[in-house]
Amino acid sequence: MSEGAFRRKHLLGLEDLSREEIEHILDTASSFKEVIGRQVKKVPSLRGVTICNTFFEPSTRTRLSFELAEKRLSGDVINFSASGSSVSKGETLKDTVRNIEAMAVDMVVLRHGASGAPNYLARNVDACVINAGDGFHEHPTQGLLDLYTMRAHKGKLDGLRVAIVGDIAHSRVARSNIWGLKKFGANVTLVGPQTLMPRDIERLGVRVTHRIDEALEACDVVIVLRLQLERMESGFLPSIREYALKFGLGQHHVRNTPNLLVMHPGPINRGVEMDSEVADGPESVILEQVANGVAVRMAVCFLVWQASGAANVPEPVAL
Questions:
Q1: Which residues does the UniProt record annotate as the domain Aspartate/ornithine carbamoyltransferase carbamoyl-P binding (predicted)?
Q2: Binding site for L-aspartate: which residues?
Q3: pLDDT of the residue at 231
């Protein structure tokens, strides 16, 4: 991949990225994975760059992963949370971030409950914008770290058979994974209750089934999604117990599918989405996903800042 293969000032989603751009991000993440394995884990790639993590929704894993990635790159990091801020007094998203930008912030990492909020922000501020999850739309860095983890274990993404199980309707992770995987010709099967399956989702080039056993037949990777009960109104599920019986990933599923890679974006509802024995078993790479997330987010921050043209930053391999 030639230098400058990623030329976007913002990362808003995977839908608009090319296969080559995604590969360039993953290759850059591999360089940073080597960096964070060193005794001295810090590099000066974003020295002097001020990054604001702006989270309008609760988050632990994503926010901490971004913060660690930014600090590993020597960025100056500030964190903004909507709770206890002027947002509760009626301040708009645009005004909030413009006030932050007036403090000479160079990059904004945004999580927001409204789909399209990062796109709106990117049109209205000068800073680089990275989408850390927007509504039911996308979670691109989670999709990228999932692709990175699959490639590391399976050696390729082309033609992989991937099942995504659970709450598809409310999952931005599912959408980012679908967009990313389809760029590589992967065969994607969605499985879950009909009430949690978006209408006409097959238009994205995926297969839909409501039987987990059928979805796992000859499957290489299974991504189990969290039930997002906080986003649901009544009527989506008869009961959590029935969902666990029909769609929970158990040891018998793993035994019946050789070489299955088990993934989950976290946090896990143990005993509902999957059994603890599966979550902690040898097929599970859930904690590895967390570790890979730091390298992938380092790569994303590095590449968008490089593409912004604001600084002449070196390639990570030369640091």
A1: 9-151
A2: 89, 172, 226
A3: 54
